[in-house]
Amino acid sequence: MLKLLNWFNQTHIKMKKNHTVFLIFQFIVLALLLQTSVLAQDRLKNLPGAWAGTLTFQGIELRLVMNVSFNEGDSMIVTFDSPDQGAKDIPTSKVILREDSILVSSKIIGGKFSGKINADYSAMAGTWWQGGKTFPLNMVKQEKPVALHRPQEPKPPYPYRSQEITFKNTTGGFELAGTLTLPEKVGRHPAVILITGSGPQNRDEELLGHKPFLVISDYLTRQGIAVLRYDDRGIAKSGGVFKTATTLDFATDAESALDFLKHQPEIDTNMIGFIGHSEGGIIAPIVASRRPDVAFIILMAGPGLTGAQIVLLQSELISKAEGMDEKSIKSNGKLNRDIFSALKKNQDNARAEKKIRALFDAADKKNASDTGYQKLTDQEVASQIENVTSPWFRCFLTLNPEVYLSQVRCPLLAINGSLDLQVPPKENLQAIEKALIFGGNSHYLIEELPGLNHLFQTATTGSPTEYAKIEETISPAALDVMGNWIRGTRDE
Asked: pTM of the entire structure?
């Protein structure tokens, strides 16, 4: 889990000086939903094709591709791609051509693009407007399609079987859809259920052009391990409602996947485990704490601290990585803590909203004389409040992983990248180990993998701004650690 300029749903933080947007663990798909019907003219014969540009927002770069063509009735057809986010062929809504300029607007996201086309129709200098702010967006016509290089992404034919499946969450009364991959060899196989991080995710946990769960599934199935991955509730082919669900609700989805696998004839029902990434790394212990039939769990950047503690830590670390000054970092931290306090004291959202608005107003007044201070627009403040007063965030804020980790009796592997700025490895791995020791579970392995970020990519700084730029989807070292540990656990 991107709406344009509203990203990072895996502790991805939008930073304003002295302000922090709390889109924790979210990757939201870019949506430029536009439609057009503009008559082509002879002078526009060179306009059709792919035009590519890059939007830069607080260090995050996202490529945007505008595809232009004409149908048989000479009506212009415009679609958009966001290669870095895996969004393709997005329809459009309104396009206006005037002399040597083009204007594209979107009511759905409240944004618009205006570009001036050069004489030989090879480039256009433009601007993107959204949320009361403007961003340069210059497009260049491409000779060939814009594509991401993702060398680890598997391509068919696969040396294993792949089945489209559905299973029912009886608690919620809806069906979830997914893919079950089975080793080619007939028999009863150990199995893993993959649990995505926070934010709306499909079964591949697709984000920023990467498909981590597809790569993990492919790797493990080639190693003789069956893998079930599924779309989050309300996403892609799964039923249910995502927006109002909490971490505890998502745990019932994972538990339903477990029940499904236990009735599959080619699954070793004594050897079914979970791999949870990020928020999935707390969902797995929740299920394992109440289900003794869970054989093992793997936590990939799973939290050991409460949501409030993680937000404060990640905000500071990412702010430092992006070059924010110490004064602003401290100011952000105080604002975060004040907002958390307002949420805890005011369970009624209307009261909480009033308190939080007052906090933002106070911050604006305090920094009114600071020329470097960027005040949030009313729309941005409203978005902040909607996010932090959501059922998910309220639950995440106070959910304590220790409660569930201390009740886990099955073997557990916890891995973190040393460069993870979203779920900091030192503090969270220590908390996980402490909870396991407290609960009397000695069958665990804790590993901090050097040089890897929150997505387990080989990284330079660990900043979320690197995710889309890195070609590697997941480090082979991380894959090997998980695969070897599962096989070792089965052999014990």
From this structure: 0.85
